Structure prediction request, 209 residues.
Amino acid sequence: MKARVSKWVTAKRIVFLCMLLFMTIVMMQSFKTAPAKKVTPVKDSAGSVKAFMSVYKVLMSPRCMNCHPAGDAPLQGDDNHIHGMNIKRGADGKGVYSVRCSNCHQPENTVGLHAPPGNPKWGLPPANMRMVFQGRSPRELALQLLDPKRNGGRTKAQLIDHMANDGLVGWAWHPGDGRTLPPMSHTAFAAQVRLWIAKGAYAPGSKMK
Prediction:
């Protein structure tokens, strides 16, 4: 009789332990985090073009266009007039012969109204990668910015980083006394660049201005 009772108690314990193990496994499975799904940005041609048109307004402002001229002379002022003193681009974008950008343009803005602006990287794009903004339509400029052969060899990710973090790009929002700022903040500008790319990096139609 005692042997039967002992076997019954043992069997009961085994059943209990099995149930406990089963419940533990179920609970552990319920706490497992589902693998993160890769989010693919939704392409939106209208939204992408709208974002680029905001970017375009900044790039065509004097603070950007003056260093991205159609010719080999930098531009000056809010009216985009040709730089005085016969300044030329040069092979490296820093001037020619003894007439170098760094002769007047120091690592920081010179204090005073309309005094020479400054940045450690001051200069135009080099002659072999001129990156012209002046005279470009929205479509032309968008396609140029997306083309590594014409944008300095940048991928889309590198283009975003350049627009958001490059010190010379950022200078446009700290240009010194007497110079107008671009039409939106640098933070807003960088956000529009990201939005343009994220929504598909579409170029505006040829009729858009």
